[in-house]
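Q: What structure does this chain adopt?
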Amino acid sequence: MDSVAGLTVVITGAARGMGQMYAHRAVSEGAAHVVLLDVDSASLEVAASALRVAGGSVASYVVDLSSRTAIAAVAERIRTEVGDPQVVINNAGIIRSGYFWDNEPIGDIEATMQINTLAAMYLTREFLPAMIASTGPARILNIASAAGTISNPRMSVYAASKWAMIGWSDSLRLELIKAGHRTVMVTTFAPSYISTGMFAGARGPLLTPIMTPEKATAAAWSAMLRGKPLLMKPWSVGFARGVRGLLPTRAWDFIADRVFKVYRSMDEFTGR
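A:
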């Protein structure tokens, strides 16, 4: 796939940040329709208006992604009012920092798992049958995190949601191949910290600079179009994952804490 020209693109968490950037890319490439999903109605309308001024055919829907029934309802509206999408970008996510025992069961633990992982599953399940039935190419881009590849103190729930995202996303990719549905390709994006405000105060580990959202979005978009299975950015994310797999746990703990400073990266977190 060279571009999303002529296709319908659905993006979650599209009212701001990287979600909004993906939407601008879709409009600039000539997408037939760009569908924005977010819980923030005011910001969503601002983002949709800007994209329409830029020439896009844009539909926006306010939806609580922590609710399976709300996801099913909005998916039905999209099918009826816009049509089946060929591209789904599961971008929405939240972060809760702090020690696990300080996390509140409903507002922190359950909300993180629902929005970061289950929402992507439910939304993809809504649209995947039509994507499989279509004869043209289709893409699913799932935004995971480096936190889903390496354990890290003060983000255990977030890490759990992203480990689950990676496991589901890449398994889905393999299932589509095994079943012969090769026109639908799944890309999993696992970046380290990005300077969107979501991770304000976090410090990048050794050799791992905090990326700009522009650079991260461009890399993920390119990987999605090419159908690249897994993209880890920057290069040190994949390197750390490999080293972690080779070393005994205690040895890795020492290196991650004392050398790479991974285990200290969230100590001064102040993000939203």
